[in-house]
Amino acid sequence: MAYSNRRASHDDGSNTTTYPTKQRTNSIDSGVANNKIDTSRRLSVDTSSTCHVQTIVIAHGPPVAFFGSCVIDDIFYIHGGVKTRGDHAPSNRMFKFQNNTWTEITTEDSPALSYHQCIVMGHGQYIITIGGWDGSKRKSDVYVFDVANTTWHQTHAPGFPSGGGLNNHAVIPFKSHDTGILVIGRDGSLRTQRKHGDAYCLRGDPAKRTFRWEHYPIGVDSRSGHSLIGHGSLLYIIGGRADHLIQQYTGVPVENQFICNNLYSELKEMIKSNVISPMKKLPSTRKDHTSIACGSDLAIVYGGETFDGKLREPSNEMFVVTLDTQQHWYNLGQIEFGRQGHAMISLGDQLIVHGGLGKNGVCNETFAIDLIR
């Protein structure tokens, strides 16, 4: 194994394994209810463009998929998830990634969850988990992890519809003047497959361990495995449905948890100089992908499971989309690794991916994505 199975402390020196070798891999080149703006069509992927991206494996860590993740300063945290394909028993294990090293920081009070979401509050003092699957039912519970004390606490969080829960949903914080978190389903009854779309605002104080659920007044469709990107007062919901690749909502003041700035200027120059051109056909709709804001007006989308059935394994495609009234999609190519249910974050000056389902099961690679220059 690439990491310790024992309970680890929060010290950097405990139960760590370092994988210092950086392996560059060649990329694969194969030729408010009425404020929704639907700009998507269900179309096939355009694979004719030249590949512009490559990967570098920087570490191996826990093999895990459909887990919660977040970043505080220069530390990447992951929690929970599943360890094998089709696993219905979620993990309670927690790890941090710093200086290309994975360290386990699991404690006995860590909740076992998968398909949940994590978000940072209190200027990095707390990690909040929202919803998820506990092995028998969907949950609307909110847990608080005190980063300094490495302790978990379940909060009092009333207001969610009775008999309902969340899994494979998406979250994004409201802008800094607001302490709320926007949560967009999938939500539904605790155990059955019946589900519907809804939007909620979660407000609370992690220090006091009290939160409250409120309905948020926008009309959203049922989704699963989607992602959220904010741009000014616009909210973009990407994927999660077979019939909509991207939908835009106005008047939703959110801000992105992660922003990838290191690739922005080069991508803008590639667009300006026509090194990459707008796709004539939009990508296939997909779920369980990741997206990340890039600079002030771009987003990068990677991986996932496509709805059209043309890909029989997790996607290895990467795209960049412009965030404006009429979005333009650009195909950056296909990297070596296809992933679904993974995490993609910006850490320092690198775009980092970890875990998820791959062609042969749950993956443990941590790799950086960069442009081919």
From TrEMBL:
Region of interest called Disordered, as start-end residue ranges on this chain: 1-33
Phylogenetic lineage: Eukaryota, Metazoa, Spiralia, Gnathifera, Rotifera
Source domain of life: Eukaryota
Protein name, entry field: Uncharacterized protein
Annotated Pfam families: Kelch_KLHDC2_KLHL20_DRC7 (PF24681)
InterPro entries: Kelch-typ_b-propeller, KLDC9
Entry GO MF terms: cyclin binding
SUPFAM superfamilies: Kelch motif
Polar residues bias spans: 14-33
